[in-house]
Amino acid sequence: MDISALGADGRQWLIQISYLVTAFLFIMGLKRMSSPVTARSGIVWAGAGMLVATLFTFLYPGMGNFEWILPAIILGTALAWISGKRVAMTDMPQMIALYNGFGGGAAAAIAAVELYRGETMTLTMGSLGVIGGLIGAVSFSGSLVAFGKLQGLIKKSWRFGGQQLLNVAILLAALFVGALLASGFTHDVFHVTLFFVLALVFGVTMTLPIGGADMPVVISMYNAFTGLAVAFEGFVMQNAAMIIAGTVVGSAGTLLTQLMARAMNRSLGNVLFSGFGDTGGAVTSGTVSGSMKPIEAADVGVMMAFAQKVIVVPGYGMAVAQAQHKVWELCQLLIDRGVKVRFAIHPVAGRMPGHMNVLLAEAGVPYDLIADLDEINAEFETADVALIIGANDVVNPVARNDKSSPIYGMPILNADKAKNVIVIKRGQGAGFSGIENALFYLDNTRMLYGDGQAAVSQLIQAVKAA
Description:
The chain is of the alpha/beta class and 466 residues long. Helix content is 58%, strand content 7%.
């Protein structure tokens, strides 16, 4: 087929058809990502949609600068491929934050190009461009701060008196300058630059005070921001693919943010402004009493080998220890002995949504053994052993009964209701939120101290010897 013979109208028609195909692939990809069984193929579907949109965009009449576009695509693809292959699973949350920030930065860059051109736009289009640029810039700088926190480059949260007032002042200043640009009152370089500087600074100052325990929600929120920014810029450029992709990402990210906040029984405002998770030390609840009781791996192995039901609760500590493969090896031994094994996943376990599911899938755990909080909670009362490996706040019973606790009202996994609770932990420190865990002090709880992978290896040998 000779595409050049189609003419400008024919090319536009072909491009719009390709964007319709892209929309279908995006939506089907997102649908398939909703299940662990089909999530991998969902990513492939969505990636195919992006490939279609990218290739057919080159057909735009009058499109040029290929000497810049093609090397950028090749370089970006190579860097993403290499980093994606090399990144450790424990570092996946910060990589997602980083890549999401790049998406917001790209949307902001598109807005900057349009605004720096100084061309007159309608009030509607100018407003959409400014809003997209603002959201994209905030997402870019905020995501970089989130990356720095998760990567350990930013080791503390910066909070001071009047900080929220300062943030409001910066946001209002950005909105004021943005209104001047959108209305066409000015398009000079100074005001455009000032607008983006204010937006970038606001992203930094808004994210710096947020506690580390809330980073999963923040990442999800900035993901939604990036989608919205792309959609707004799509309207400005009259690009259907950007509108569709941005709307899908923005709506999915918004829904996920709401679900994550609900899973912690907190409002988004509380997440953004409370500084939860940066207490500087353990917060001991008034209901915590007694002492932690250690146990040897040999005794735990016998207990699990002769149990009827074992529920495993993984957390970020399992990811850090890279113990998921050993955990599954242990569970396979138990299953071979006739023990019923289930995995219990809390919605905010780990450092990003679905973090534990990804780790378990990587280890080869069948999907039908993995259950979320609502599905598994009723089963803890009939479990002989609840094995906690690296989880902390999501199994803390003070969330049910201590109104003074920062996590009061948060839905938790009912691990404390199992007949025996075994906690694999490196030491006696508090969880990521800085809150002392009352579960560790209960009469039916025993602590197996040590590195997660080493401890599970000891359990494997103990079960084999039982």
